[in-house]
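User: Okay, second chain of the day. Same drill as before: sequence in, structure tokens out.
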Amino acid sequence: MSRFSALSTALALSLGLALTACSSGNGGTTFVPPSGSGPLIYTTDSGNAIQEFAASANGNVSPLASVSGVNTQLNSATGIVRDSSGRVYTANQGQNQIVVFSSSITGNASPLFQISGGNTQLNAPTGLAFDSSGRLWVANPSGNTLTAYTSPSSSNGNVAPAITIAGSNTALFAPIGLGFDGSGNLYVANYQTSAINVYSAASLATASSNGNITAIRTISGTATGLSSPTSLYVTSAGVIYVPNSAANSVTVFGTGANGNVAPAATIAGSNTGLFSPQGVVVDASGNIYVACFGNPGFPGSVNVFPAASNGNVIPSQLISGSNTGLFGTIGISL
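Assistant: Same drill. Structure tokens below.
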């Protein structure tokens, strides 16, 4: 069941699915990098698996690798992100833990290290992102907090965060996704209030001593189309992509968006195949990759849309089907 006892019934239902679904995975599959220079797609399944595909994958294809098994320590895996060395960080929502794997994960692999324990202040960790200094930031929806940890070599085990963003000024209400623009401003998706908060790089610089900071911008209101956002992705220029689990949509906001503003684009409709979208990431060409939890009891999917997509568009790629191993897909990273 969901660990989000303090949140709304809708949040408990949506993310409760993430904590109770299961994924068999193929724990014996060996990681085989695809040919060429294209990136990999890394996804988390709401059970205990990481699936890896070539970015060009399409259809009912088998993953290049499926990481699962008792050694992995994966438990209700949600957010996933890679550092500059290619290491894979995954949030274990059910264990209040971050587990870290090498860039060449194989089957039933053990983590290189983990962030876990009472000192960490992790509280149902979900969204993950790195800032330009290499600090790992975590959205903790059950605690209405954001926590940041220094370089992995010094953030192993039961370590206290270097920064904690919390308090009445922050307007954090079930923060679930986060990311940084090229200027170091922090963007946070709030599930409970269907709002995006933006915090300035300057305020973050002093947050270690005063974490009760105020957002410089907030995107919220009926015009925004935000509806139980589950994560977000921010480009260097500050363009924001937001999957909305309650609306089966992805909304896109331009640089500087603020207040009750309409999105610059909305991907939604029967052609899109979006069902409970959870994670989103955009590649260097602007292609939009969306992880969909899927209809409970049925496989999840990765829906890929061309750059500048808007409206009821058909995905240019759709990874879905029994061979994919996707089931209750939540996190996505390239």
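The chain has one domain: 9-333.

User: Thanks, on to the next one.
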